[in-house]
Amino acid sequence: MIACVWVVAASLIGLSAVVVGANGSEQLMAPAHPGMVWIPGGEFVMGVTAPAVQICGPADAEDATPLHSVYVDGFWMDETEVTNEQFAEFVRATGYRTIAELPLSAEEFPQLTPEERRDGSLVFAAPEQTVPLVNYRAWWQFRTGADWKHPDGLGSDLTGRGRFPVVHVAYADAAAYARWAGKRLPTEAEWAFASRGGHTTARYLWDGDELAPGGKWQANIWQGHFPNQNTGADGFVGLATVKSYPPNSYGLYDMAGNVWEGCSDWYRRDTYESRSTTGPSRNPQGPAESLDPTEPGVLKRVQRGGSFLCSDQYCSRYVAGARGKGDVSSSTNHLGFRCIASIRVGVPAADVNRG
Ligand SMILES: [Ca+2]
Asked: How many CB atoms lie within 10 A of CB 145?
């Protein structure tokens, strides 16, 4: 005998449907937006679980320790990073201009020359030779005219890149898109829960301890000598079309690699340390303010997942539990985002609509 038969109730709310168990005791909203998957929520362990993992040098791993328990409610999450096609739809509808498209004001930045105040963004540029890994300026360039529509700078465009993740979006740009879409950016805890796919101890987000099981790469990262030689052994030297690699157990693609994904939490190096002393947190929203001891005057939000530039020779923050951070006003060609939507489970449809 089948204990519980699922039926779709007659009531529809926009694109949502109410699914009700045969015993009437459970209800679940279908996604209000296409392309989202349900993340069930629950208690899990946040932080780097892999032993002695080398992330970006020993000191940089400290922000992802100690391990501590966190609970998050269930939510819907975009199955992919937001793509250029999706972002273009937002811009067509709203006329929105991203931070990278706007020149800095002379009033706010009088110390800069007109040339230095021009619009643009940071683009990775592989040096021709080996360089010391102590100065990221050896491989990052500020390019005038670089923005989401011109990802490599002036003269580049989105031809053939519609299904690439959108890049050169600063925090406010991602948040604006999310509001327009009727969604929001995930908290770090929500992102971390979803990234684990229900598995809490594996070294990598593809639920395994092998980098390329069976010789098959599971994420778009860097192979070769960083930063001057990328072999593209995983199929991509630059960004990858979303869904180029297998999804995790929740059906989420590219949680590791491809582009960093912005979260709503302010970044503090000591967040986990503070939280570990207070018992399991429920739906933590992050600290009240940002503080990165290495750049105390710069406001930073958490970023997660790593990018196509992640190399074990320099920075392997695509490993499960690792954290990233970024200046809220900056954008680059390896930073993107995905959105989530909160809908409560077991709540009558009318109440969900009001809630
Ligand atoms: Ca790659």
From this structure: 17
CA 182 / ligand 1 centre spacing (Å): 32
* DSSP-derived pairing of the beta strands 140-144 and 335-336: unpaired
Q: How far is the CA of 234 from the centre of ligand 1 (A)?
A: 5
- Evaluate whether residue 60 is within a structural domain: yes
Range of the domain at 318: 48-338
Å from CA of 217 to ligand 1 middle: 9
State the total domains in the chain.
1
CA of 45 to the centre of ligand 1 (A): 29
Structure tokens at 247: 């999804």
If one compares 347 and 283, the residue with the highest pLDDT of the two is 283
Report pLDDT digits (tens) over 29-70.
667 788 999 999 999 999 987 655 556 655 566 899 899 999
CATH code, 184:
3.90.1580.10
Q: Is 132 within a domain?
A: yes
Q: Which residues pair with 12 in a beta bridge?
A: 17
CA of 121 relative to ligand 1 center, distance in Å:
21
pTM over 0.85: yes
